[in-house]
């Protein structure tokens, strides 16, 4: 076995161990996750061993191509910044409170409304942000009313990681894979909207069948604490979110790139908020919290995994892997779905982008990998960083939901969803 492949396997295993054990260290009074440190160590080892040179890395990072990882990170962080800003303005908590009020005493009604709200919000923002925001709120609501939180928190997780396929910016894996093959906003939407609808319908149906008994009990309505909601800041965030989506949709037709459109509107959002905050509050604390909440660790993680895949490319390993997979969407969809739960969906996306580049890739095969990178998160917590964050939040609130319990529900829900989605993709 080639040493490049061994190093990649060892790095992926170290990342998974860090993710599963939630390994972290305290630094400056804050907990710092170690999963990205494992990836960075692997990348540095690849350079030290001569598997890839510093010049090759520099060329990949700064060349003006669609697959440039720095552009992808800028697009992701720009859209995430607007989403986090809306969270800091209290917009998501306001919507969640509205769901509870609309449902009254019906758990079933509450479940379906919550699933719909999370789905819609994920479409226009980011699955990670919705999970980080809604999970604590659901657990708080369940504690106040004495209901079983599991159907709601798992339903929220499924909705967020299914509907993140809808638009190109819903998941960093969507961005990475699509930009690598020059897929524009409208072509992506044309293929992935019906696929997402098929997967969303399948997952919702199975969720209902699994949890219908628990959801049949009435809610014991209790007064909830009023949560702060800043309307002007929410309006600013929503306006710039809408503008950025429109700009990304027309980017390829107007002659500029999506990452630049997202970046400029994120800057506009923060600048407009700063002007308002200075005039009304005299401080910029909300913007400071927004910047602190961004998932900065994703940068060294993605860049490090990119370096490792580059070393596999140099050794001809990805080309060899391309010849082992049949040239059809089902094969690539199922393989990427499974691989996400072995090496996590971000390294999987980097790896499969190279494999697709070495094969006779059709657009359906590319979209199948996008599909696998999103729905892979539903099988085990290892499938995506969102799963690890979600499981960590649940454990912090003393909810008995183990890794094995996740897998039990995950296989029941994810497999019908991925098969339905791939079937829909093959029809298009």
> How far is it from the N-terminal to the C-terminal residue, by CA?
39 Å
Shape: globular
Strand arrangement in the largest pleated sheet: 1-2
The beta-strand count equals 2
Count, helices: 20
Relative helix content: over 70%
User: Rg to the nearest angstrom?
Assistant: 21 Å
- SSE-based structural type: mainly alpha
Q: Strand percentage, roughly?
A: under 5%
The averaged pLDDT comes out at 89
Structure characterization notes:
This protein has a two-stranded antiparallel ribbon. The protein is globular, with a radius of gyration of 21 Å. The longest helix has 31 residues, at 185-215. The chain has helices at residues 3-20, 35-48, 54-62, 69-88, 91-103, 107-124, 127-145, 150-162, 172-180, 185-215, 231-254, 258-280, 285-293, 298-314, 317-322, 329-343, 345-357, 363-375, 385-396, 403-427, and strands spanning 24-27, 30-33. A hairpin with a 2-residue loop joins β1 (24-27) and β2 (30-33). 75% of the residues lie in helices and 2% in strands. The protein has 428 residues and is an all-alpha fold. Keywords: Arsenical resistance, Cell membrane, Membrane, Transmembrane, Transmembrane helix, Transport. Pfam families: CitMHS.
């Amino acid at each position: 076995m080639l040493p490049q492949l061994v190093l990649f396997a060892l790095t992926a295993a170290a990342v998974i161990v860090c993710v599963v054990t939630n390994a972290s260290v305290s630094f400056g009074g804050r907990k710092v996750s170690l999963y990205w440190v494992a990836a960075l160590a692997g990348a540095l080892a690849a350079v030290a061993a001569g598997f890839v040179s510093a010049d090759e890395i520099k060329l990949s990072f700064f060349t003006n191509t669609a697959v440039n990882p720095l552009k992808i990170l800028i697009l992701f962080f720009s859209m995430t910044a607007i989403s986090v800003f809306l969270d800091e303005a209290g917009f998501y908590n306001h919507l969640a409170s509205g769901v509870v009020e609309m449902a009254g005493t019906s758990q079933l009604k509450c479940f379906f409304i919550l699933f719909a709200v999370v789905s819609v919000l994920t479409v226009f923002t980011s699955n990670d942000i919705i999970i980080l925001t809604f999970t604590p709120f659901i657990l708080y609501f369940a504690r106040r009313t004495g209901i079983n939180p599991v159907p709601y928190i798992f339903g929220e997780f499924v909705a967020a990681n299914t509907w993140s396929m809808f638009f190109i910016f819903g998941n960093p894996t969507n961005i990475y894979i699509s930009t690598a093959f020059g897929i524009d906003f409208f072509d992506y939407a044309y293929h992935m909207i019906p696929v997402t609808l098929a997967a969303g319908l399948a997952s919702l149906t199975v969720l209902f069948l699994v949890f219908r008994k628990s959801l049949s009990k009435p809610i014991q309505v209790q007064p909830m604490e009023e949560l702060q909601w800043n309307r002007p800041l929410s309006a600013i965030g929503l306006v710039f979110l809408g503008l950025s989506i429109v700009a990304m949709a027309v980017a390829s037709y107007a002659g500029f790139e999506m990452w630049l459109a997202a970046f400029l509107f994120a800057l506009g959002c923060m600048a407009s908020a700063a002007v308002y905050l200075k005039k009304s509050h005299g401080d910029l604390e909300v913007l400071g919290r927004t910047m602190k909440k961004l998932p900065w660790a994703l940068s060294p993680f993605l860049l490090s995994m990119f370096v490792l895949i580059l070393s596999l490319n140099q050794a001809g390993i990805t080309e060899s892997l391309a010849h082992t997979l049949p040239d059809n969407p089902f094969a690539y969809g199922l393989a990427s779905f499974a691989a996400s739960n072995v090496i996590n969906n971000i390294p999987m996306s980097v790896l499969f982008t190279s494999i697709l580049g070495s094969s006779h890739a059709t657009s359906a095969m590319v979209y199948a990998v996008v599909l696998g990178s999103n729905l892979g998160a539903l099988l085990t917590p290892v499938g995506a960083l969102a799963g690890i964050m979600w499981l960590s939040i649940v454990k912090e609130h003393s909810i008995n939901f183990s890794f094995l319990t996740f897998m039990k529900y995950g296989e029941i829900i994810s497999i019908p969803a991925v098969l339905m989605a791939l079937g829909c993709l093959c029809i298009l």
